[in-house]
TrEMBL record:
It comes from the Bacteria. It comes from Thiorhodovibrio frisius. Residues 90-110 are annotated as: Disordered. InterPro entries: P-loop_NTPase. This is Uncharacterized protein. The lineage of its organism: Bacteria, Pseudomonadati, Pseudomonadota, Gammaproteobacteria, Chromatiales.
């Protein structure tokens, strides 16, 4: 199962995965190529969009459980706040809900718009860049 979020998010300043302080950090092109390679290698992997999950958790969670061969608990939203995660997921609060997006840098958005592989990844994952 692949959980996907806005593909530009990892490149937003302050994102915990791709800090500017990391030497030789992956470029937009590097990440796009890796995601395409992953999707090509696992064509039957279910894709779960973050936006779909936070919009309708009760509708999407059964798909997640099925993909992971886990039993589905229809009361999962009642116990969500009790579960602690060990990594830095950025999760906050006791509700499953959309989180505000950090704005993309104009130069990054232009680099993305000029990148055919990035634009094809957006299409493949059913994402769109907002109009400038």
């Amino acid at each position: 199962m692949l959980s996907e979020v806005d593909p530009l998010s990892p490149f937003v300043p302050g994102h915990f995965h791709f800090s500017d302080s990391i030497p030789d950090r992956p470029t937009l092109h590097d990440i796009v190529q890796r995601v395409h390679a992953f999707l090509d290698a696992y064509p039957d992997c279910p894709l779960i969009r973050y936006e779909d999950f936070v919009a309708e958790p009760a509708a999407v969670m059964p798909r997640i459980c099925e993909a992971l061969a886990l039993g589905y608990n229809p009361d999962f939203t009642d116990t969500f706040a009790v579960i602690e995660l060990s990594d830095n997921t950025g999760r906050s609060g006791d509700l499953i809900s959309p989180r505000p997006r950090r704005p993309h840098l104009p130069a990054l958005e232009q680099e993305a718009r000029d990148s055919e592989p990035f634009m094809s990844l957006l299409t493949r994952l059913d994402y769109r860049l907002k109009d400038p």
